[in-house]
Please model this.
Amino acid sequence: MKQVPQKNQWHKVEGLHPHFTLLYLAIVGSSLMFLFLGFSFVFSLIKSSAPVIFPKFFALSTIVILFGSYVAQQLPANFVKDDATRMNLNLLLLSLCGILFLVSQLLGWRELVSSGIVLRGNTTGALLYILSGLHLLHLLGGLIYNAVVLAQVKHMRADPIKSLLIFSSQYEHLKIKMLVTYWHFIDAIWVVLFIVFLFTI
Model:
């Protein structure tokens, strides 16, 4: 009896779409990279006597990305309800959240530069830039994918037949779920980074 749940779990893994499998593998790889760099940041902070400030705009980034995660969570329900108008609105809001996150990160880096923390001469400061910069690159990837889906939804709204085909497609539903999963991933990574920065700097 104890082996049944294990078999069910294996069936779930084997039943994953190849694209979703690749996404999960990429998420695991990226998570390990952030974990390694995060430990390096903490260790360098312990050993270093050079001061590092906590950028206040990083708090704004956290609020923005959490709201973006809430918006993204609505997308699968919009798809199931064939609600292209609502999907379009939520995708636009998600894009806006991504852009606001980008701006707040740049303003946070500006705070660091103003306090004399640059990439050279301060290992801890450099790792702070690298960690937040790598996360920003992941976010830009999500924004590009979001833009592709948004363009598709706009075309779909203009063509009822195309709309019917897309809303009845399991693969299109999968694409939406992949977007949501990826956004939750970059959300979770940033929240962890924010907590590390907040309680160690």
About this structure: The helical segments are 3-14, 18-47, 57-73, 75-80, 84-114, 123-158, 160-167, 170-200. Residues 123-158 form the longest helix (36 residues). The CA atoms of residues 139 and 186 lie 7 Å apart. The two ends are 50 Å apart (CA to CA).
